[in-house]
Amino acid sequence: MAANRQYLQALSVVDDPTASIKMLDELCSPARLNGYRKRAMNPINPSDVKLFSAALRGEHFIHGFQNRHLAGHLGILLSKDKRERRRQSSRIGRLLQLLRAHHLIAKIPRSRRYRVTLRGFKLMTAAVFLREEYMPQLVFAQVK
Prior knowledge:
CATH architecture: Orthogonal Bundle
Structural class: mainly alpha
Strand content: 5-15%
Order of helices and strands: HHEEHHHEEH
CATH superfamily: Winged helix-like DNA-binding domain superfamily/Winged helix DNA-binding domain
Number of domains: 1
Number of helices: 6
Helix content: 55-70%
Distance between the termini: 38 Å
Radius of gyration: 19 Å
């Protein structure tokens, strides 16, 4: 009887992960922006996690970030050639559209800047933690 009571008390402390799982499932499925289908995000894909890390940088929290800020953090050196620079800028623009389609970032009105939404902060932080902290520990624990 006492063991059952202790077990129930322990379970009452555990949060219900249903909402988090639902949000991650939405992130892992395609989204729509202005009627166009955008690909699904993968929270453990290195390129997606690098994009999340670039958007979550602390220097962007006050004024937001622009296309060129993400380019610098993703290691894309803007070319001197006008045509190549336009191609690179378009590539970053498509990544911004992808983040917007999944409601991870929002455009700041009357500007060319974006900010991370609360949903985006939760999901992208979780994905970065999962990829950078949790997975290496999990793999290392299984190797032992």
